[in-house]
Amino acid sequence: xxxxxxxxxxxxxxxxxxxxxxxxxxxxxxxxxxxxxxxxxxxxxxxxxxxxxxxxxxxxxxxxxxxxxxxxxxxxxxxxxxxxxxxxxxxxxxxxxxxxxxxxxxxxxxxxxxxxxxxxxxxxxxxxxxxxxxxxxxxxxxxxxxxxxxxxxxxxxxxxxxxxxxxxxxxxxxxxxxxxxxxxxxxxxxxxxxxxxxxxxxxxxxxxxxxxxxxxxxxxxxxxxxxxxxxxxxxxxxxxxxxxxxxxxxxxxxxxxxxxxxxxxxxxxxxxxxxxxxxxxxxxxxxxxxxxxxxxxxxxxxxxxxxxxxxxxxxxxxxxxxxxxxxxxxxxxxxxxxxxxxxxxxxxxxxxxxxxxxxxxxxxxxxxxxxxxxxxxxxxxxxxxxxxxxxxxxxxxxxxxxxxxxxxxxxxxxxxxxxxxxxxxxxxxxxxxxxxxxxxxxxxxxxxxxxxxxxxxxxxxxxxxxxxxxxxxxxx
Length: 476
Prior knowledge:
The two termini are 32 Å apart. The chain is 68% helix and 3% strand.
């Protein structure tokens, strides 16, 4: 450990702030709701089919979701410690900046802007319109309304993309102009989604139309490496468990509250995912799940009849919650970057009337709308997924360095367990990605590296403008 400590830059304990701070208006309930909405999305309705294809054994498949949840809990414990060190807006941007230097933090934040949050908002809005189209077919129409060329690129607009863009703009306006209504909306959506999943699960088992024999050990053999390979989509389905870390500056008594928030939110997600997968297997044998495009819909048809339509409302609420959660969390990263002078200074401004990072929220919404209208957000998300996972792994690896120094001073070894497990699992997934799809990883890193000129220009323009507050300002 001492060799690793020697090569890393000196870790800064200063908070990444100047005189601009966001108000502490969020409580534990708000943070938990943010995590639930940010994690639970369409992935849990479709990913189990991928898992069943790789691991055609019901017990092994269910164990995967528990292991994935345990790894997410390890990450939550690690992020809680990082957030207690630096209770400021920005999440990984703050942690990487303080551990590895400002460029590392900026690249993490740049990834969040071009893909992580903006691409996620675009994808969720597009999916929302498709699901809503089952009730209002005209909304999901892909008929071309307008075609125009921008800088040699021909863009075609259809009603589906326009409606998705309008939804993004609506949530941005809500979280800019009414933070109280915004967080209340977020809480209602998270509660509604949790309740709908609970009803779906209990009603599914109560219907009696499934079979417990589906849980018998499968006779289909699978290679042990498939189990580790299947852990990758499981972990991506759990991604978002760290959402509350991005808004830790706005949480009351954040140093005391952040651990229970992260643990409670992640534990709720684990319970929801485990319950859903149990009812999926109860409804269909694993062999049939492998060929399902939407496992949840197939399960609903078996349990409640072919005319049942319980999954669509659940998916719509999940997409609304995800758009709202990412509209809250993502802009805090760009706000923190601008506040530190690592990004365009204007995006550190807050609304005088509402005290929200209005320009940062507008920036993310605008880029998400561009991605929806021009298309290509699926490719951007695919290419940058490697860098997003690398950011969280590097942040927790930095925590290992910090805890390692404490260990040298005589602190307990048990504090290293959770971050070490998370770092090892993340490293295994990253190495597998490099091995299986090196081009994907390389293109993603090149897209992230494209932000370096903006970083350099911002640092030059903002030189000497960032004053730092005392270390524990505004913490609790």
